[in-house]
């Protein structure tokens, strides 16, 4: 099952902005929660197109590798694949 469809991403110095489609907001909220539990990391998401389930995610204090590591941890824990 595909949990997310990546629409766009912008990666800067310790900042990641993503736009994606997702029909599973529980997984999205879990990822945001895990990000916010990390020291010096902040993450928020905003629904930008409700009819097509599109969200913007902003993450600060984390690089792309760190974000991938968090996704891998969640994949192992929930036995899902992103």
How would you describe the overall organization of this protein?
The chain has 82 residues and is of the alpha+beta class. It has one domain (5-78): RNA polymerase, RBP11-like subunit (Gyrase A, domain 2, 2-Layer Sandwich). Helices cover 34% and strands 37% of the residues. The chain is built from two helices and four strands; from the N terminus they run ββαββα. Strands 1-2-4-3 form a four-stranded antiparallel β-sheet, with helices on one face. The longest helix has 15 residues, at 64-78. It is globular and about 35 Å long. The model has no long low-confidence stretch (mean pLDDT 88).
Provide a quick synopsis of the model.
This protein is an alpha+beta fold.
* Count of discrete structural domains: 1
Query: For this structure, what is the CATH homologous superfamily?
Result: RNA polymerase, RBP11-like subunit
- How many helices in DSSP terms? 2
Instruction: Report the C-alpha radius of gyration, rounded.
Output: 12 Å
CATH class: Alpha Beta
* Protein structure class: alpha+beta
In CATH, the topology is named: Gyrase A, domain 2
Which strands sit side by side, in order, in the main sheet?
1-2-4-3
CATH architecture heading: 2-Layer Sandwich
Order of helices and strands: EEHEEH
Tally of DSSP β-strands: 4
How much beta, percentage-wise? 35-45%
Largest beta-sheet details: 4 strands, antiparallel
Amount of helix: 25-40%
Assembly category: single chain
Average residue pLDDT:
88
